[in-house]
Design goal:
- By secondary structure, the chain is α/β, with parallel strands linked by helices.
- The chain has helices at residues 7-25, 34-43, 56-63, 89-94, 106-124, 157-165, 186-194, 213-225, and strands at residues 29-32, 46-50, 79-83, 97-100, 128-131, 144-147, 150-153, 169-176, 199-203.
- The chain has a 7-stranded mixed beta sheet, sandwiched between helices. A two-stranded antiparallel ribbon has the order 6-7.
């Protein structure tokens, strides 16, 4: 499959995906409203906006839409926006990551200026992108909306405006994976998952059109309510 771009990418990808399939079988990984999200992806031009408690959801959410090795449905596999310093280059390719940088350098600026163009190209061609409005972990930053102990950063106005301009379907996604107060290494997240700390992912109701960033943030918190 062209998507994996080589044997090493395929191995990296499916090691993690198989672990998550096992976790779902053991009911350590619960997913809500997945069918509705799959139907939206089939139609194309979808933007998932997700909270960001750990590194695990960067892999876990796309894995829900991955085809089996013998299926040619790579268009349905979402891209994810991620920090360039968190994943090696082979992982970036294997997990379809659109990298950004939070460093204050000319190189970082060049990387970040490519993101809007890449987003437009993917969404206009019927693809799907997962975007984390917090940019870092959930507990960092400002401009939060809070509700019942949950909080999420309000998405950037530019992102929501572009989604409306491109008639993109926005779907809020809430990932709940234990304590959100510390940065978790990816392997540690997996260990915690299999040691009994269940992960829950809930897809909220999709919407299209002119909405405010605050509306998106509130929809994300509503999805969080369904995780219990």
């Amino acid at each position: 499959m062209q998507y994996f771009r080589g044997f090493s990418g395929m191995v990296i990808a499916y090691v993690f995906v198989v672990l998550l399939w096992i976790a779902r079988t053991l009911r350590l990984f619960k997913v809500t409203n997945l069918k509705e999200a799959q139907q939206a992806i089939e139609l194309g031009n979808v933007l998932f906006i997700c909270n960001h408690p750990s590194l695990l959801e960067t892999i876990a959410i796309p894995s829900l839409f991955w085809p089996y090795p013998w299926q040619e449905k790579t268009r349905l596999v979402p891209y994810s926006v991620a920090d360039i310093n968190l994943f090696p280059i082979k992982w970036q390719i294997a997990f379809r990551l659109l990298v950004v940088s939070r460093e204050n350098t000319a190189e970082a600026t060049a990387i970040n200026t490519k993101l809007p163009k890449n987003l437009r190209q993917i969404l206009k061609s019927g693809g799907t992108v997962i975007f984390y409005p917090e940019g870092g972990r959930t507990y960092k930053g400002e401009c939060f909306i809070q509700e019942n102990g949950r909080r999420v950063r309000i998405p950037r106005h530019e992102l929501v405006a572009l989604a409306a301009k491109w008639h993109t379907t926005i779907i809020p996604v809430w990932a709940d994976h234990g304590d959100c107060s510390k940065l978790r290494k990816l392997w540690k997240s997996y260990w915690l998952l299999f040691s009994g700390r269940r992960m829950t992912i809930c897809f909220g109701k999709p919407f299209v059109g002119n909405v405010t960033p605050e509306t998106v943030a509130l929809a994300l918190l509503r999805a969080g309510r369904e995780t219990g």
